[in-house]
Structure formats: C-alpha cells, structure tokens
Input
Amino acid sequence: MAVMMPTQAVLEQSGALICAGHLVAFPTETVYGLGADATNGEAVAGIFAAKGRPQFNPLIVHVLDLTAAETLGEFQPAARKLAETFWPGPLTIVVRRNARAKISDLVTAGLETIAMRVPQHPIARALLTASGCPLAAPSANRSGKVSPTLARHVAADFGDTVSIVLDGGAAHHGIESTVIDATTDQLVLLRSGAISAETIERATGQRITRSLHDDYRPNSPGQLASHYAPAAKVRLNVERPAPGEAVLAFGRAIDSTGMVINLSPSGNLTEAAANLFASLRAFDDAGVNSIAVMSIPNHGLGEAINDRLTRAAAPRF
Ligand code: TXA
Ligand code: MG
Output
C-alpha cells in the first residue's frame, strides 16, 4: 500500500481504482474511511474482507449532495430538514432505501434502509467526483480496533489489501459521524458522534429519542458491546491509577507513575474527541497493559467520547 499526497493525478488514479473495484482509503472530517464503489458488490465484499468485519454490519454510503442522496433513499420531512441543516458534515442519516437504488445489497446488509452522509472534507469530495459513484466507506480500521485519524493508522492496519491511502493529515473531528434514524418523523439516535444530539435538537427543533442502549441495538451494529477496542485493558472513571498504569487524562491530570496522555488539559470536549483514537493507539504502540481513564463529563461531545470508551472497556470475546 502507498500513502500518497492527493495531487490531481493521484485523485484521478484513485477514482479509476475505485471504478475498477479496488479499495482506496481517504480522509474525511470525522475519521479515515475505507472506500469502495457502493454499486459494486464484489468491491464492497472487499471492504468486509479487509476489515474482517461481520457481514451483517451495514455500511455508510457517501455522496456529494442531497440530490444524489435522494436518488438512493426516501427523505421524509424530518430527514430533509436534517440534511439541509447539517450536510455537508459529520451527520449520517438513515432513510428508507429507494427500491430502484443501484446499491449493492451488501452495503445495506439486506436492510430496507440505507445510511448516507455528505462529507465535508475536500479530499473525500474530490474522490467522490473523480470516481463518479457513491462510496461505501466504513472507518478504515480492522474490525473491533480503534478508528484511524491519521493516514499512517490506516497503513498500520492494512497490508496490500488497500492500494492507496490518500493523506489528508489529522482528521478534524477524530470521532465518527452521528447516526440518526430518520425513517419516520420521530428521529432516533443510533450512534452518538461528532455532532451532539443536543446540537441537532437545537438546530432542527425536533426531539431525538436516545435508543443507544435498548431495543435499537440490533439495527446499528456499531453498537455491539466491544467495538472500539485498543489492545490494552481499559478501566473507566479512575481516580487512583495502579502503580505504573497508563492514564488517559482529561482536564487537570491526576498523579501517575505510568505513561500519561491528556485528551485536553484545558477540559475542552471537542479537542478531547479529536485526540481520542490517536491516544488509544499511542498507548498500544507503547505496549501498555492497562489504561486508567479519568472521568469525562457526559454532556455535548462527552456523550460520544464516553460511548466509545465504554465499548473500549467492554468485555472482549
Ligand atoms: O464518520 C463516519 O461515519 C465514518 C467515515 C469514514 O465517514 N464512517 C463510518 O462508517 O463510521 P461505519 O460503516 O464504520 O459505521 C456505520 C454505522 C454503524 O453504526 C452501522 O450500524 C450504522 O452506521 N448503519 C449503517 N447502515 C445502517 C442502517 N441501514 N440502519 C441502521 N444503522 C446503520
Ligand atoms: Mg468503525
């Protein structure tokens, strides 16, 4: 695999690779994505194979704008309002799939719904333009590992199964898009993410049902228990780390004899989200056995950060 700067020639080559059924990893404003032509079942199967991901996990389809999205799914008024307010940007909207949509069934895992988002990142948009097709793109990490926020994270997870990683530097949000079920006018939060539910409620004037830990679980397999897991053991809400234990700090750090990474010394949740996955990877790279995580406030982006950390701390199978 080659990590490449996205010159015009490289983007054209990447678009051609996508059209030929290959995988190209690219930066988005949330995390790096592993992209394939969403209309090509074999290419999409290549994503599952490369990630080692269970096939029942539906993937997010990336398109250039709402007009393109409307050829693939049916937008109710509530869904349209979300799209008009937050696209392009880190919001994924689940709508009823259009029966005539030329999308591989593997992408939607056989569901009658489809998850779509319009990315903001110029390199993601350039790849959409160069390939001319909707891009199925989950986060570009091996299944169950933390999401990549740098091109070299992608390179570390995949060998030659991915031909090109387009290098866009550090992913801005550092945490995945928020996923909202908008198949009906009652919006449901399926995955907390880069835009907080409060922000969405404030901007649209619509209530969002939080279903993260109840019956919606099977519908959004991103919610499987141990998902965003580093190799190290993770302990949450720690006030006193064990001797030598690594510490993932937030705000004013606690005393520790082990490796310390502070997500945000000033206690800024946006900065903490952007640093989260890279920090977990840095602990793994350093070979630590256990990470003590200080408590992180649960408002705003803290909800998404705590969601990912809770998964990272969940029992492994
Ligand atoms: O930020 C992001 O969204 C990144 C970047 C690369 O765009 N992509 C990403 O995709 O995180 P992925 O495939 O790793 O996450 C897909 C999430 C999962 O939680 C999945 O269960 C949910 O979206 N999802 C996809 N299709 C769905 C559907 N039809 N109904 C319900 N949930 C769906
Ligand atoms: Mg992922």
The radius of gyration is 19 Å.
